[in-house]
Write a structure and sequence with these properties.
The chain is of the alpha/beta class. 38% of the residues lie in helices and 19% in strands. The protein has a seven-stranded mixed sheet, sandwiched between helices. The structure holds ligand AR6.
Amino acid sequence: MVTMAGVTVECVKGDIAAQRDMTAVVNAANAQLRTGGGVAGAIHRAAGPGLEAECRPLAPIKPGEAVLTGGHDLPNRHVIHCLGPVYGVDRPEAELLARCYRNALELAERHRIDSVAFPAISTGAFGYPMGEAAEVAFQTILETAPRLNHVRRIRFVLHGERDREVHEKALARILGQDYHRP
Ligand code: AR6
């Protein structure tokens, strides 16, 4: 666990739909905000049909956008739905992925949410290489953290131990660069 401008950031192995102690979880959504595979499937299954019903009038969203709903049957008060870029298709992908993290955190901040759990957006069906995506995510959090007053805890929930290690390494690289800045 590390701290960025008073915000703690940790990487754990687990299921994004089983984060009981977090106020909001982020969905790696599709444009229509419907259920799907991976994270979207896990979140919609655990939340129940009320989530899709609440999502319907908010769709479609564009790559980089984030929208907020209730958590329904999830253990979390809110879900923040982000549409990540499809790697090699939605360009520039690093900027669009950064926008997801920035928009999600700014939305959480506006709603006075204290803790947010993220999956590795775009790294499954959307094909974004895990290491590259992790660096974009942590760089964006580092830049956004000084503007956050309500968000105090950020958790990355990774599906496997290898993915967690890739994130830990990316986090160390990003912080290393920051420490060496003049
Ligand atoms: N908890 C945490 N991480 C997970 C879980 C889980 N339950 N399930 C998968 N992952 P993806 P995307 C990891 O495909 O790339 C959907 O079908 C997974 O190993 O969920 O943004 C939507 O409907 C990967 O590292 O999201 C969209 O059409 C990461 O979460 C599309 O896929 C993201 O994988 C979105 O694609």
